[in-house]
Design goal:
Elements lengths: L2 H19 L3 H12 L4 H7 L9 H37 L18 H14 L4 E2 L5 E3 H4 L11 H4 L9 E3 L5 H9 L4 E10 L11 E11 L4 H16 L5 E8 L2 E10 L16 E10 L1 H6 L8 E8 H8 L7 H4 L2 H4 L3
Parallel strand pairs: 1-4
Antiparallel strand pairs: 2-3, 4-5, 5-9, 6-7, 7-8, 8-9
The structure holds 3,4-dihydroxyphenylalanine.
3,4-dihydroxyphenylalanine (DAH) binds next to strand 8 and strand 9.
Length: 342
């Protein structure tokens, strides 16, 4: 066997062995460069061709070509195998088990205020009321004057008002919406107006500088105090249960005459007296009354022709009572441990 043939066979066998052992495409590539590359082992052999006698050259060329071909074929085969293995490994790694239980999505909760509001709205829209809105930044004129609270009236001091200018306030009550709706003159009126109100109160368990009220207003021909009582009684029963009784106590509000406060029988003890109602058996729920003729006049209505009733409910008060929450601050802190319970 000639020296060249021996070399070629050795290179070929070494290469085939290395290819067999190669465990990755990079290794295979390295072998290709080392054996078949421009400066590889085969190229080295070809340099020896110079010294081969002319008549033997074709034979040597044949050996070299055969060896190259054998190596290339083996390499191609091995490459395919490695690629297949890599693909299988990737697919296995990416496998998704569709039978696994899904991750639970966290769903938000409605705020107890919102739940209570929607319930109040449902009761009143069920009786044909419309839900209206008014501005939170309000003219002093609407927040006070048109509600029969003229400048220097002591009632102005009762509600600690945030003034923006001499004429503009953060509304201290939702009652100004009454004046705005009456002024539009679309009669009859049957509306509730929920919204945020502001008073410069210190924060404690029952006070906050910002809270919510729901105003109610009915204006029509021949509306009576009996209508007011009947309506608010239905409201109380729907909100706090069918056994709820109501009691109207005379009171004073500048914009209603006569005025009253409505209590409901304690829905915890049924009226016997318990810790919840502080032993009273009754819980104060809202202010109400027949719209004052002077208010009607100032809002462009003829008190001889039209009249009606109004009421104002504290939304937080309803939510606190309904869900037996004893500290108003919990409603504003947005602690999910609290909110998750509703
Ligand atoms: N605006 C009153 C307040 O904030 C509540 C109120 C009382 C509203 C009687 C009314 C009403 O509409 O008739 O204390």
């Amino acid at each position: 066997m000639s020296e060249i043939e021996e070399k070629v066979i050795k290179i070929k066998e070494q290469a085939l062995k290395e290819i067999k052992e190669a465990d990755g495409l990079e290794k295979l590539n390295a072998i290709r460069v080392n054996v078949l590359g421009k400066k590889g082992a085969m190229a080295e052999v070809m340099k020896l061709m110079r010294d081969v006698p002319k008549e033997e050259k074709p034979q040597v060329g044949k050996w070299v070509n055969e060896a190259r071909q054998a190596i290339e074929e083996k390499m191609e085969l091995s490459k395919k195998k490695l690629e297949q293995a890599a693909l299988t490994a990737r697919l296995e790694a990416e496998t998704i088990d569709v039978t696994l239980p899904a991750k639970k999505q966290k769903v938000g909760h409605r705020h107890p205020n919102q739940i209570a509001l929607e319930e109040v709205e449902r009761v009143f829209t069920g009786m044909g009321y419309q839900v209206m809105e008014g501005p939170e930044i309000e003219l002093d004129e609407y927040n006070f004057t048109k509600l029969n609270i003229p400048p220097n009236h002591p009632a102005k001091d009762e509600q600690d008002t945030f003034y923006i200018t001499d004429d503009i306030v953060l509304r201290t009550q939702t009652s100004p919406v009454q004046a705005r709706i009456m002024e539009q003159g679309k009669l009859p009126i049957r509306m509730i107006a929920p919204g945020r109100v502001f008073r410069s109160d210190e924060v404690d368990a029952t006070h906050s500088p910002s809270f919510h009220q729901i105003e109610g207003l009915v204006i029509d021909k021949s509306v009576t105090f009996a209508d007011l009582k009947g309506t608010l009684e239905i409201f109380a029963k729907k909100m706090f249960g069918p056994d709820t009784r109501t009691k109207f106590r005379p009171h004073h509000f500048p914009f209603t005459e006569p005025s009253a406060e409505m209590d409901v029988s304690c829905f915890k003890c049924g009226g016997k007296g318990c810790r919840f109602c502080k032993g009273e058996g009754w819980i104060e729920i809202l202010g109400c009354g027949m719209v004052h003729p002077h208010v009607l006049e100032m809002c462009g209505l003829d008190p001889e022709e039209y009249g009606g009733f109004a009421f104002g409910v504290g939304l937080e008060r309803i939510a606190l009572l309904k869900y037996e929450i004893d500290d108003m601050r919990l409603l504003y802190e947005n602690d999910v441990r609290f909110l998750n319970q509703f």
